[in-house]
Known about the structure:
The protein is an alpha+beta fold. 24% of the residues lie in helices and 34% in strands.
Amino acid sequence: MRLFFAAWPPPATAAALHAWAEALGDGKLVPRENIHLTLAFLGEADPVRAAAAAKRVRGARHDLPIDEARSWRQNEIVWVGPRKMPRELEALVKALQLELYRDEFILERRLFAAHVTLLRKASGPRDMPGLPRVDWPVREFVLVRSRMSTRGAAYEPMEHFPLSE
């Protein structure tokens, strides 16, 4: 089972980001319902073990600012995210990674970069229009199952983990 942990935006935020990316007119648009911020990618993993690790994570509620848009030529993606990572998000990711390591999950060995992919197979750098003003409150994180098909990825939330006030 392919799994990852993520923060999911409210529907209005996903719709606004999707419309912004659609206006760029180049690349493969990430479906509105798939827009998310990946916190940790597990790949093929046991969901029971992953959920057990996540239940030990303590994190604080916060807002995710969406105030930067970039194009990564080498990955052919357009993404949005915070110009400066919120301390609470950084602490949440570190706590989640620690608990996953304790349960012997093998994670990517690169620094976490808070980014929300909106376009794939996008051509190089470009001038981008101003971002919409959106609210993205992070009140929980989610264990998600990813299923691939000929129509692309379908994401199924499996378990929600609330954050403290």
